[in-house]
Amino acid sequence: MRVTQLANLGKGRYKVYIDERPAFVLYRGELNRLGIREGEEIHEESLLEIREQILPLRAKKRAMNLLLKREYTSSGLREKLRDGDYPETCIEEAVAYVESYGYVDDQRYARDFIVYNLDRKSRMRIEQDLMRKGIHKDTIRAVFEELEEGGTRQDEVAMIRGLLEKKKYDAKTADAQEKQRMYAFLYRKGFHADAINRALLLDITLNSV
Length: 209
Description:
This protein has four domains: about 1-40, Arc Repressor Mutant, subunit A (Orthogonal Bundle); about 45-105, Arc Repressor Mutant, subunit A; about 105-150, no CATH class; about 155-205. About 60% of the residues lie in helices and about 10% in strands. A hairpin with a 2-residue loop joins β1 (about 5-10) and β2 (about 15-20). It is built from ten helices and three strands. It is elongated, with a radius of gyration of 26 Å. It has helices spanning about 30-35, 45-70, 75-85, 90-100, 105-115, 125-130, 135-150, 155-165, 175-190, 195-205, and strands at about 5-10, 15-20, 20-25. The chain is mainly alpha-helical. The model has no long low-confidence stretch (mean pLDDT about 90). The protein has a three-stranded antiparallel sheet with strand order 1-2-3.
């Protein structure tokens, strides 16, 4: 196997291409120590050290440093490590490492996210946001069920009523077009049709008293 390119990434980092394909990123000192030079063959011993020692250790350290700054889902952490051009095997090893210590826990992340947004977003919007972060729908559903069993429930009708008040929506004076616009607005927010209808009906009832 031949080193066909050493692409300078700045700050002493180089992307190493082997047989025209990107392989990994090393620092200048590591390239010198391992005798890796553009246009030359790379020794099998060097490859083993890079793949089994240097990169796995670096990926774990990078994962830990990322988690010191903020919490990540397992999927989000994988994406950040991919940005660092770590091989997939090193990424999986690093994620498994931090998960084993409880530093990454998708269920805990989902629970914290749901509790924080329970009175701010519809359930559908919360689910969509969490799935975009890479959390499986089954995990999200399980957390919602756990919270509901513990007495923490979401009242979408009350949330919609709050939005209607902020929008100064008056059911008595609203024409059909305005009602349709409000319904579409609430639907885009992720509220279920049943909750929207019940909230609008309640608004009409209260305003007719």
